[in-house]
Amino acid sequence: MPLGKVVSGSLKDGVKIILESSEDIEDYPVGGLITIRGNQKEYLALVSDVGVKGDSAPITALSGIRDEYYKAIISELRGKYSYGWLEAILIAETYGNEAYESETFPGYSSIIPDNYQDLLYKFFDKANNTTHWDIGVPKTPKRVDIKIPINISRLVELSFGIFGKSGTGKTFLGNILASYFMLYDDYLASKGYVEGKPIRLLIFDMHSEYGVYLKDNLGNKIADGVGQLAKDKFVIYSPSKDLYEKYEGIRPLKINYLDLDETDIYMLSDVFGVTDAFKSRIYDFIKLIRDKFRLKEYWIIGLLATKELQEKLAKSSRGLEILDEIRSRSGVRDLEGLKEYIIGEIKDKWGTGTEISYRSQIPKLYTLLRYPFTLEEVESPISEIVDYLVSREGVSVIISMGEYERETPLYMIIANLIARRLRSKIYSIGEPKTKIVIFLEEAHKFLGKDVYYQSPFGNVAREMRKMGVTLCVIDQKPGELDRDVISMLWTNFIFTLTDQRDVDISVIGSPNPQLYSKIVPKLRRRTALIYGDAIKFPVVVEIIDYKIVENLLKSRKKIDIDELIDDLKEV
Amino acid sequence: MASSIDIWSNIKNTEPIGEVFSIDSDYVDIFIYPEFLQWIRVGEILAVETDWGYALCIALSTSYRAQRSFRALKLDMEVIRKNIPDIYKFHVLLTRAVYTSRFENGSIIHMKGGTPLLHALAFKIPDDAIENFLKPKGKLDLSFIRSYIKAGATPEDLKYFINRYYEIISKVDSVDFVRELARILSSIENIDPLRYIKVVSEFMGWI
User: CA-CA distance, B49 to B13, in Å (whole number)?
Assistant: First the structure.
């Protein structure tokens, strides 16, 4: 007995289906996968809307009838006075044993067969735990137990996005994908990296849920992060003393402020909440400090010149050296004096308005002094991090922010510095012997419309794909990302979004944005629309339980690549 | 306790209440013997003998008229009965029944069978066979109502049927009964099931 029949629609607007009266509309969730048996082909479709068309007559005619009778009567009369309908997006069709994107439409009265779940396998691959790994359980009418795999070998090749509101499951998915990349790397290693280069992840981990553990909404531990589960695969760094003192294996991360450039400061200006007038002069101010006061590479000291910085620098020999150097270059005795000197120059050059602006806004940048920074190259592990990523013998890297999880400026500084250094390293050595995937949370801060062309990540996104560097763009506001970034994402994992602009942007690369945009606001927590290069057809899935991946990682055999190569040589 | 087959087999040993007068499609017009006239009401299930068992019909309407010409007597009934005791011989007492079901090979099937012959005897069905009629395979099956209504039974006629067998019907689980009734009514084209349900519900006290 069919579950429903096709009555109308079009390839563009979707297919309209009337359900049999025996079917309960409550069994048909939006985002559910159904199959349609046409005259010649089978079709895969995704439910985009559901509803009931009904007559009020039974409700008025039977008013007053006792509830048990009313329910019995309505259950039988439902089909006479109402019908359930579905609107579904046609996704794919069979052609022989192969499935392709839909380009035809099922004929009038084509049926939804009651064994539709068996047909679903015609449209999706099965996991092989090498290149294809289960990513989730699709929504289906009546919850059919099948799992849809993601093609990790494709996912690693091109940038992809994970979007969704806060708390929807982005980080869980990020950990699952990171785990799969590592498991795929094990597989590649077992083949002596003949089938692909070693995979290195660079994960910017704002909330320490990759490097330490995943948390529930109250901050309680749920499960170990991928960095803890595959310790042989990752090196974890943190600016947070709490983390690197508490967790064995987490290394301290200090930023050498002398590595900053003016773009970093410009990109931070919105985060610090400076005025537009100040922001528009930032490059000028830095140029003034750099050239006029001849501070050159020490311009950041001039910009942050305060008594507090003076005291900090005076505590180390390197700091004292720098203070001496600044004194000799600028001719000013201390940093407080230097600051006033700079303000005076600004007034002379751009007038009182700019002077007032500088005086009032520059303290907002002093937040930088609260962060763990250094002025010594040897104390900064950025070069080491980059070496880990590009070398065949290296490992993946997680930057966990620990107690600084809400310090967006520090997060941005670290991320920008590493990205810039990675880019210059790759330009100096050429295409690395590894595939590098950069997981970037709060991506709009680096790839937003205002900063995309200045951010090092913008450069990575634009220039480095062919060198084997791709991005995992993670964000809750995809609408704020530059359009170019969106167009570079070949696979998208979309959790629920409610802002219409975010919804529209998130589905823009899908085969039918207008129809998919209806689905995204209705997705439940941990349920995602996935479409793009790494999945055969667009699908809504409930992301698999992280525990499954956790067990996979725990049970994996660690591969000693040197031993393997020796074995291969012996063979 | 007699089995349902015994009950049905014994029907033809009871006194016939009439015989087939004419047959027209789903309708069987039964000439009712005058002495049974008062016993036959709309909604009554009648069994008409056939070679293979019984054709089972539900009374839909009655008609009562003179065989030939009608002449007014201007007398009260007492006088008529006293002076013309065989007056019924000159009348045609017809009950139009709808052929809904059959009893064949020991079981009830809610579907028409072969056509009875004219003058085939018609019998009342004893009440202890009605449960078997309502549940031919042990499960409530009111599909005979479909034929009854399609042949013209109004909500009131259905109410008379239920009233006639109220004692037996009230022993059936009432939710099952209403569900089955609604199921059957919803499958009939060109009627308003709600009118039937409303009348039945009021009669049964479900409202």
Answer: 11
**What's the pLDDT tens digit per position in A523-558?**
999 999 999 999 999 999 999 999 999 999 988 765
Q: Tell whether B3 lies on the interface with A, counting CB pairs under 8 A.
A: no
Q: How far is A23 from chain B (nearest CA, A)?
A: 15
Q: Report the relative pairing of strands A255-256 and A373-374 from DSSP bridges.
A: parallel
Q: Tell me the CB-side half-sphere exposure of residue A394, using CA atoms within 13 A.
A: 24
The verdict on domain A149-253+381-570 having CATH code 3.40.50.300 is yes
B158 to A80, A389, B161, B188: CA distances (angstroms):
20, 84, 5, 14
CB A365, CB A267: distance < 8 Å: no
CB A502 within 8 A of CB A479: yes
Q: How far apart are CA B55 and CA B47, in angstroms?
A: 6
Residues in chain B with CB shorter than 8 Å from the CB of A55 are: none
CA-nearest of A140, A148, A118, A137 to A29 is: A140
Q: How far is B199 from chain A (nearest CA, A)?
A: 11
**H or E element: which one contains A330?**
helix A317-330
Q: How is residue B34 annotated by DSSP?
A: G
pTM of the model: 0.74
Residue of B nearest to A76 (CA): B183
Q: Rounded distance, CA A117 to CA A477, Å?
A: 35
Tell me the sheet residues that pair with A251. A237
Taking the Cβ of residue B205 and every Cβ of chain A, the question of whether any pair is shorter than 8 Å is answered with no
Place of tokens 């790759």: A426
Contact A76 B198 (CB under 8 A): no
Q: Does B202 touch chain A (CB under 8 A)?
A: no
**Domain boundaries, given as residue ranges, for chain B:** 4-204
When scoring B145, B146, B183 by the number of chain A Cβ atoms within 10 A, the one with the most, hence best to mutate, is B183
Chain A environment of B197 (Cβ under 8 Å): 61-62, 73
What CA–CA distance (Å, rounded) separates A287 from A294?
10
Q: What is the pLDDT of residues A466-521, one digit of tens each?
A: 899 999 999 999 999 999 999 999 999 999 999 999 999 999 999 889 888 988 99
How far away is chain B from the Cα of A85, in angstroms, using its nearest Cα?
A: 19
Would you list the domain boundaries of chain A? 4-123, 149-253+381-570, 258-374
